[in-house]
Amino acid sequence: VASGALARRGLLVKDGSALERLAEVDTALFDKTGTLTLGEPVPSLDHLTKDQKAIALALAQSSRHPLSRGIMFALGAAGVSPASLTAITETGGQGISGMHGEIPVSLARGALDQTGIASTLHIGEEKIAIVYADPVRADAAQTLAALDASGLESRIVSGDRHSPVRALAGELGIEGEGEMRPDTKLALLDTLKADGRRPLMVGDGINDGPALAAAHASIAPGTASDVSQQAADAVFLGKGLMPVALAVTIARRTMRIVRQNFGFAIGYNVVAVPLALAGLVTPLIAAIAMSLSSLVVVGNSLRLARVRNSP
């Protein structure tokens, strides 16, 4: 019932043990890009001329890099037509280049700005900086507030640069640390678990896979890498982050109802078995009593299906 309730609210749980562990978490660790943010970089292109936009689009549509796709979608939506380029080549970690007639052009990694995301459009000797913004999920602050109300301390652990991580952490009112490698995240998880904490890890990148697997419980967005989705205990869909808080809330309610059902079953048998041994229970009464006991347990469990959309 709990898994069904969460699925209707955008979170898919892999198995029952995941719900048990989600009910026990007391600390939430969030990756930044693609987790707290949408992972959809939006470029600022108003300062480009018509010809520059055409060249940028031609380069971008020849690449699958997220920054290139951001340029492609933005300029495509604006009705820009791509320039005619030749000899287009892409170098991993460097960018994509080509020839516009006799002029070399490229879209390459740019100097990092305060957001941590930038690229540079080269047209001959000319260099034009393109800055990107990665929107924060609309309900990120509300989700963190809900986790805080549930007694979970949240913090950002990201491989991004310190400045954008701390800026977002300040905006959301939590602690944040950047430039964390996969082994650094694992070390933090080990420290937390050694202190008796039960951390929840929420991340999306390939480098988050080890941390997701090592955490007490873990959740990945539906846009996460295959590695992260396989390592996580649950996956949330859509652009909202609230399913993470709902997962903790419903998991805790689930375990309370599990304990209530066990308590009822034990109490029922403590009363019913001696009566049956004493010959005070006829077969008809026993059949009715057993059916009623099952209905009570099922009815109690179905309360989980009526959980609200927010904790």
Descriptors for this entry?
311 residues, alpha/beta, six-stranded antiparallel sheet, 13 strands
Put the structure in a nutshell:
With about 300 residues, the chain is α/β, with parallel strands linked by helices. It contains twelve helices and 13 strands. The strands form two sheets. A seven-stranded mixed β-sheet has the order 1-13-12-11-2-9-10, sandwiched between helices. The chain has a six-stranded antiparallel β-sheet with strand order 3-8-7-6-5-4, with helices on one face.
Order of helices and strands: HEHEHEHHEEEEEHEHEHEHEHEHH
- Tell me the fraction of residues in β-strands, as a range: 15-25%
Strand order of the largest sheet: 1-13-12-11-2-9-10
pLDDT averaged residue by residue: 88
Major β-sheet profile: 7 strands, mixed
Class based on secondary structure composition and strand pairing? alpha/beta
The low-confidence runs, each spanning 5 or more residues with pLDDT under 50, are none
State the separation between the terminal residues, measured CA to CA.
17 Å
Number of alpha- plus pi-helical segments: 12
General form? elongated
Number of strands: 13
Fraction of residues in helices? 40-55%
What does the radius of gyration come to? 26 Å
